[in-house]
Design a protein that fits this description.
Blueprint: H1 8-11, E1 17-23, H2 27-38, E2 47-54, H3 60-67, E3 72-76, H4 82-91, E4 97-101, E5 105-107, H5 112-121, E6 125-134, E7 141-143, E8 146-148, E9 154-156, E10 171-173, E11 180-184, H6 185-191, H7 203-213, E12 217-228, H8 238-256, H9 259-282, H10 286-298, H11 300-311, H12 318-325, H13 335-343, H14 345-356
Parallel strand pairs: 1-2, 1-4, 2-3, 6-12
Antiparallel strand pairs: 4-11, 5-12, 6-7, 6-11, 8-9, 10-12
Helix pairs in contact: 8-10, 8-11, 9-10, 13-14
Length: 357
């Protein structure tokens, strides 16, 4: 039996890709996002779309089921955190590839095709990411891949730079931002799921580090364009998520950095932490910052147990790992500026922006 109006080979073909949109109280964003996601489907290959609702109370589930009947909804009873919700979505997917998307991302037409081609031509790659631009200023870059510097500063490569083609080369990067990326589903079985103890923030950087340690590659493909609002959901709880950023940064270092890197670059890590602490004091967040450190310390025994498992998986050389970490440093800059960027990337970026304007 065939479906009227469709070729039998297409109608019977199982999806190769599931595009998964994670949302929490983002009903007003979803029509924009889902419109661009559903448009990634074509007649030659069916693409499944899944919305993971992380305990919203704004009518998101009813709205999606009424407005987007072709989309599957995974409804979670409560907000279990970004990392856990992403894992529930991954567990619900049976396709060879899974796209992970924020609810405040608009995909350009044809976003999916170059990422699929990239993973197809790089069998050792676990993930692929495209060029994300700022939604409200499409001349500026939001992220051209994720970077974890040797100082343990986690940044979006190219963030806030004017786009003049400096990231128009397809290449290996440290990691893919889970806000808009395509993953090989089997890689989650080898690397593991996102670390749910993080709740939110740095769970994708943690996964990228574990994937790199395990010998997997991450690819950047500039032809895959998207537009990111940035913090459209999380800014409503800024203090809470600021606390998670500071806490999870310490957990990331304790869990994933090889011992040789801690010895070699411990001074960079210490300086970065001191500068961040000073910035928190300036912004009247010193108490919150110190509470984040105390909470990280209380989680240290469990983190060190996970560290032993992670470090046993390392297949990559330290030289190659450091090379990937340095791809986030500004090319052509002076040695002093590159060091400043590595120790305090956001401050260095603001200074560079002022010089450009």
């Amino acid at each position: 039996m065939t479906v009227r109006g469709r070729r039998p080979d297409v109608a019977d073909r199982k999806p190769r890709v599931t595009l998964t949109v994670l949302t929490y109280n983002g009903r007003e964003l979803l029509d924009m996002t889902l419109s661009s996601v559903v448009d990634q489907r074509d007649g030659d290959r069916e693409v499944a779309v899944l919305v993971v609702d992380n305990g919203s109370d704004d009518g998101t589930v009813a709205h999606v089921r009424e407005r987007w009947p072709q989309v599957t909804v995974l409804e979670l009873a409560e907000n279990i955190g970004v990392a856990a919700a992403l894992n529930r979505g991954i567990d619900a997917v049976a396709t060879p590839f899974v796209g992970l998307l924020n609810n405040d991302v608009e995909l350009a037409p044809g976003w999916l095709e170059p990422l699929l081609a990239t993973l197809g031509s790089h069998p050792g790659a676990a993930s692929a990411t495209g060029k994300l631009m700022r939604y409200h200023d499409r001349t500026r870059i939001d992220a051209a891949g994720d970077v974890l510097l040797r100082s343990a500063a986690a940044i979006n490569r190219g963030a806030d730079e004017l786009d003049h083609g400096q990231y128009d080369v397809a290449e290996a990067v440290f990691g893919a931002c889970a806000g808009a990326a395509l993953y090989r589903r089997s890689a989650f079985d080898e690397v593991g799921r996102f670390d749910e103890t993080y709740f939110a923030y740095h769970e994708d950087i943690d996964w990228a580090m574990r994937a790199q340690l395990g010998g997997f590659e991450a690819r950047y493909e500039p032809a895959a364009l998207g537009y990111h609002m940035g913090g459209a959901t999380t800014r409503r709880r800024g203090d809470f998520y600021g606390h998670l950023q500071r806490r999870n940064h310490l957990l990331l270092i304790a869990k994933t950095f090889p011992a040789q890197m801690l010895v070699r670059h411990g001074w960079r890590i210490a300086v970065t932490q001191a500068l961040w602490l000073a910035a928190s004091a300036r912004d009247r967040m010193l108490g919150k910052h110190l509470r984040s450190w105390r909470e990280a310390a209380s989680m240290l025994p469990a983190t060190l147990r996970r560290r032993r498992v992670v470090q046993r998986t390392r297949r990559i050389s330290l030289g190659r790992l450091e090379e990937l970490m340095m791809t986030g440093l500004p090319a052509g800059a002076s040695r002093s500026h590159r060091l400043l960027f590595e120790l305090a990337p956001h401050t260095a970026r603001r200074r560079s922006s002022r010089r450009r304007t």
